[in-house]
Amino acid sequence: MISAELLGWYDRHARTLPWRVPPGRGQADPYRVWLSEVMLQQTTVAAVKAYFERFTALWPTVRDLARAPDEQVMAEWAGLGYYARARNLLACARAVAAQGAFPETRQGLTALPGIGPYTSAAIGAIAFDRPETVVDGNVERVISRLFALETPLPASKSEIHEIAGRLTPAKRPGDYAQAMMDLGATICTPRSPACGICPVNEFCEARRLGIAPDLPRKAPKKAKPQRSGRVWIGFSTDKVLVETRPEKGLLGGTLAFPSSDWDGSDLPPPAPADWQELGLVRHIFTHFALDLTVMSGELTSRPERGRLVPLREFSPGALPGLMRKAWALARPLPARPRPDVA
Predict the structure, then answer these.
(1) Would you call 37 a catalytic residue per the annotation?
(2) Which residues make beta-bridge pairs with 308?
């Protein structure tokens, strides 16, 4: 049986991760499972570890996180990207704190903000030992190879999910889900899979056919649309001009510099200044690529948008990645001896 072989391998070779309970040591804390799964969406394990450890040191329980100020959570999230996750994280934490605990059913979990089918299945299996079907990118790759599925992703997702459901054991479903993830992350990797040491290689049809590295097939990606805009980094002696972006939309709720709409429209700057064009920064979002022209200058009057923050209190680390790229261009400019306009 695939599940039995995989669980035996997992007992010997499970990765040590800060949110994980070692195999055979009982169920994991649903708060830590949920937090790690939200952080891991569209992000690598290596990138998430430090964020997870910092979050759980600051907010050891879901109630602690629920009480945290929005701006502090957004600042700690900076750099992880996909900032809607951070807004949903707070909304979900507050909903769970109001209920008293995480619900154990799929229906109850998916009713929470930001929890979809995959995350609810992962929490159900890993935290509550329910035989849920947990399918992430690693699992898609493993199953595509085990059964030599030639249908390209994403069209093969429903078939993969159906097969994954059949393979999920009634006993130790949480360990099994993590074993599948570990197999995909360490052995059944996207390139050059280590088929010779795979614990389930005797069941693998793609290995038998010699096509394991070619699977899963993927439909050709469409070219990302190109957008453009401007960002203004204004100074007033020892202060810098910043704003908090609207809650809804890209980079919602994050600390940022005032910018134009990202549709090429030429909006006026946020304040009068001797603006200089410093260069271009490029950033890739999920659905489009952005070229942002960075403007910098010393303000000559009070800003019409945003707020001035003393540079000694300004933390570039609280900025999202796009704005940190812009700051890297503006930061070297020396301060100009002009009167403070604030």
Answers:
(1) yes
(2) 241
